[in-house]
Amino acid sequence: MSTKEKKGWKEIPVAGVCWIPSTAYLTGDWKTYRPVWDSEKCTRCILCHLYCPDGAIAWKAETNEMVFNYDYCKGCGICANECPADAISMKLEGEG
Amino acid sequence: MVVIQQKGQKVIALNGDEAVAYAVKQCDVDVVAAYPITPQTIIVERFSEYVHDGEVDTEFVCTESEHSALTCCLTATAVGARTFTATASAGLALMHEILYVTSGCRAPVVMAVVNRALSAPINIHGDHSDSMAERDSGWIQIYAENSQEVYDSIIQAFRIAEHPEVLLPTLVGLDGFFLSHTLENVSVLTDDVVRNFVGQRRFPHVRNHEGKLVPFKLDPENPITIGPLDLYDYYFEHKRQQEEAMQRASEIIKKINEEYAEISGRQYGNGLVESYRLEDAELATVCIGSTAGTVKTVVDQLRAKGVKAGLLRIRVFRPLPVQHIIEALQNVKTVAVMDRSCSFGGHGGPVFHEIRHVLYDSNIHPHIVNYIYGLGGRDMSQRLVQKIYEDQAKILETGQTEQPVQFIGLRE
Fold first, then answer.
1. Tens digit of each residue's pLDDT (9 = 90 or more) over B66-94
2. Is-contact B89 B56, C-beta < 8 A?
3. Does ipTM exceed 0.90?
4. Residue A14: its chain B contacts at CB < 8 A?
5. Matching CATH number, A27-92, of 3.30.565.10, 3.40.50.300, 3.30.70.20, 3.90.79.10
């Protein structure tokens, strides 16, 4: 998990009771491929937002942009697969 | 066992199963979920009568299997209920998965295990194969010698399991048929005395995901998550906590044994082990459960003849009372450990493994041998117990242990 400081057995609650919310668990570092969004091709249908199993894609009204939250995006590629306008491509992490 | 009749108690005839049901009736239990299996059936039959007759305010759940019965108790316990279930043999084996979930969730479920052999061949009679197979499941294990102790131990079990420093599921083992179906005089406390002794469930506080200290139970007002996913980053730490709780339980069991003596006049050794005529004994036997009654009779007969015989009964097998075993056996010259179950291919039975292992760390090294006996309900007669002491006398005389592991009461 992304919380770097790990606690000892005397410090944590019993029975696996969560002492931090699940949002503190950054699952973004699981991904191998990241979704890259093309504003030109995108029709703002927000199907990607609806399909994302992690709620990691949002439409930002002020700028009329789709915003990807890479802290939680696991890189599953569902958004790219579902996009009817072919506006999302999956790029290998570390590449452009 | 020291029997002093305290005021307000009455003596009634109960078999071991009925003694369990009677004790549970008095402990203000919220949920009982169970599935019938011989020789445990009488427990839930009697208890369902109490429910039907309005003698208890308990939700009685008839489940489709033991796996579900324990799951039901576990989840009810998680929302704050006091719960009880009972099973035996294959029923306990079917619970195997949930036994670990229950202890891992630190759910203080109390269960009576009416010890019975495991199939195949199918056998409904008493031996310890079922609960010995679950010794590592994180449950406290208490074994009773007679129906009186069964009654007393069930009452104590709720206090032990629910103690905020313990929070571990607890089973009380009683030998199938030898105890479960044998009528005995049992001295029972009044409902008020038991209710006061057991008290309400207490909840330690835990820190939740918002950093708030909240009671350790599922409550929409103070939401927490119990027993979620735990990978290699924290699983090990949670298992270490279970071991710590087991270690803490030893002292708490002793204290509860003393407190119980104050209300009942009865106590069982120090709560963990019971020494019988061991002070100056040379030949000692170690056993668990109802066989101790037979061994005590034989010890008395041998003592009358001048033989320095004694018995150590292990009442609590988990947590193992390491120091008390060493202290109790420090002056003996030979030890015969009796096992009513078999660890196939394991060089002796589970009790033998523990006792011999514990003594290795001490500076006492008596001759120590193992007798596997009574599988599938085979009778352990006084004559056979005498044979064990005769063998020990021979070992003492010759200084030789010919066969460390033997079967007794078996036809060749």
1. 999 999 999 999 999 999 999 999 999 99
2. no
3. no
4. 106, 167, 206, 216, 238, 241, 245
5. 3.30.70.20
